[in-house]
Amino acid sequence: MSTDFQYIFVKYCTGVFLTKKKGDKNQSINKIMLMFVPEENKCKTISLEECYNKEWVTFLDEQLLLKNFQCLLCKEVANNAMELICNDHEDQKDALVVGGQCLMRYLNEHNGECPVGNHGLCNYVRGKAVRNFVDELVVICPRQFMSQETEKANVEMEEGTKITRGGPKVKHGCTFKGKIKEMKNHLERSCQLKPSECKFKEFGCKDLLFEFNAEQHLQSQMKRHMDLLLAYINVLQQNEMVNFGNLVFFFCFFFL
Ligand SMILES: [Zn+2]
Ligand SMILES: [Zn+2]
Ligand SMILES: [Zn+2]
Ligand SMILES: [Zn+2]
């Protein structure tokens, strides 16, 4: 995996899912990828850049016919759909739909040969009709989908990362439903399952939180946070680094 990604591991109930984010905040809106680890440690992913996971897309409508907007390379739902329009396929009845990333990857790896029939010089255009259709499909929040899948997969909790006290309950999950084209915005801005960190992290609280329980955490862990802060000040004191200025800072940090 490339190194310019920042990984935030989130334990959720019986499993693990992780959010993969571009380091630079301004670009992160285009770089959201989520993974969960089901049985046999095979990582399933929902990516908003690659073709869309079809189990996620059909979650609300099992009757949805995928045939017309399925990527012919990965068999998932085509994202940024392209249509192959080479002369060789003139007699083809149905449109030849491929996801944008899948097609680019294939062409790079095969010297520009067409993925259908492997003839030279693949000719393609943006699949506007397919894109418009897929953009409008209504789905549930992908983090919510994954937390449900993770629970189903019943993965053993891994050692190492502590879940916030009491653990996030499924009933607090994200109930957002919306169009696929709205999802990036939702994950960045309004998702209740967006991972967040305790503001006492630098003083030693390593609990991983979600948007929905961050405030409750601050209230229920007040005593522990105070102890962490006092221990921190104690260390500063031993190193003779305490002055009036940083005492005021700590006071404000705790109470404001
Ligand atoms: Zn694909
Ligand atoms: Zn072709
Ligand atoms: Zn959400
Ligand atoms: Zn905390």
Automatic annotation (TrEMBL):
This protein's name: TRAF-type domain-containing protein
Source species: Reticulomyxa filosa
